[in-house]
Amino acid sequence: SSNSGGSRLGRFDVEYGWEGNTLHFERPGVSGHIALAKGTVKVAAQLSFLLLAIRGAVEQEIQRHLEKEFG
Prior knowledge:
The protein is α+β, with helices and mostly antiparallel strands. The chain has one helix at residues 55-70; strands at residues 7-9, 14-19, 22-27, 30-37, 40-47. It has a five-stranded antiparallel beta sheet with strand order 1-2-3-4-5, with no helix packed on it. A hairpin with a 2-residue loop joins strand 2 (14-19) and strand 3. The protein is globular, with a radius of gyration of 13 Å.
């Protein structure tokens, strides 16, 4: 099932929508998707040039959040 209309997560100004088991997201400076499968979560994000400087911090925060939520 697809959520073609999308939604907005106000706190982060993120637009997102589900397409099957994949959540697509976009906000100024970042776009990507989170794909869910049995026993796996795959995150892919493209950062704007300005955010590339903090790429390591973004990756660490994503990893921290995934470990907190999924163990």
